[in-house]
């Protein structure tokens, strides 16, 4: 009986090697077939403007507006295809920390955004077609142009 045990021990070690080798080969096959993916960074364009209360203008319809001219980043392609996002921060304690996305209603007055090639206008309208109150604090406008492509 002792001679039988001595012969089976090498066979058992040989089988254990194959038993461990098979899962290792399977894991190697699975991980070697993985591909690395990269994320493309979209190159947004961000423009800041700080505007004082005296820069608001009143049109003949009783609408205050702030016009941003000479925006080369807002070319014809950007105007037609890209997303144009405008945020507004009012100066509080000397800081511009809280940005609010436009359009919005603040103190019962509405802020709207209109844009065309090279120009962006922020309008301030009062309730029920009344004249809004001219802002009395400095404001910082953040304009973000987000590239897009036509898929239609």
Question: Can you offer a commentary on this structure?
Answer:
The protein is an alpha+beta fold and about 150 residues long. It has a domain at about 45-145: Elongation Factor Tu (Ef-tu), domain 3 (Beta Barrel). The protein contains 2 helices and 9 strands. The protein has helices at about 1-30, 75-80; strands at about 45-50, 55-60, 65-70, 85-90, 100, 105, 110-115, 120-125, 140-145. The strands form 2 sheets. A 5-stranded antiparallel sheet has the order 2-3-8-7-6, with no helix packed on it. Strands 1-9-4-5 form a 4-stranded antiparallel sheet. A hairpin with an 8-residue loop joins strand 4 and strand 5. The chain is elongated. It starts with a helix and ends in a 6-residue tail after the last strand. The relative contact order is 0.22. The model has no long low-confidence stretch (mean pLDDT about 85).
Brief rundown of the structure:
It contains 2 helices and 9 strands. It is of the alpha+beta class and 152 residues long.
The SSE order reads HEEEHEEEEEE
CATH topology of the domain at 45-146: Elongation Factor Tu (Ef-tu), domain 3
- Can you give the mean pLDDT? 84
Share of helical residues = 10-25%
Terminal Cα span? 82 Å
Largest sheet: 5 strands, antiparallel
The class by helix and strand makeup works out as: alpha+beta
User: Would you identify the regions where 5 or more consecutive residues have pLDDT less than 50?
Assistant: none
Strand order of the largest sheet: 2-3-8-7-6
CATH class category label of the domain at 45-146: Mainly Beta
Number of helical regions: 2
Overall spatial form: elongated
Rg on CA atoms, Å: 33 Å
Level-2 CATH architecture of the domain at 45-146? Beta Barrel
């Amino acid at each position: 009986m002792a001679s039988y045990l001595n012969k089976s021990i090498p066979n058992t070690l040989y089988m254990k090697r194959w038993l461990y080798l098979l899962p290792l080969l399977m894991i190697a096959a699975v991980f070697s077939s993985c591909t690395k993916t990269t994320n493309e960074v979209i190159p947004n364009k961000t423009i800041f403007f700080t505007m004082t209360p005296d820069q608001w203008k009143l049109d003949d319809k009783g609408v205050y507006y702030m016009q941003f001219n000479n925006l080369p980043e807002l070319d014809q392609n950007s105007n037609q295809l890209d997303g144009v996002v405008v945020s507004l921060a009012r100066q509080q304690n000397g800081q511009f920390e809280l940005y609010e996305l436009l359009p919005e209603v603040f103190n019962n007055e509405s802020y709207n955004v209109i844009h065309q090639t090279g120009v962006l206008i922020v309008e301030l309208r009062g309730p029920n077609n009344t004249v809004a109150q001219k802002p009395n604090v400095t404001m910082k406008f953040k304009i973000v142009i987000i590239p897009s492509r036509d898929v239609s």
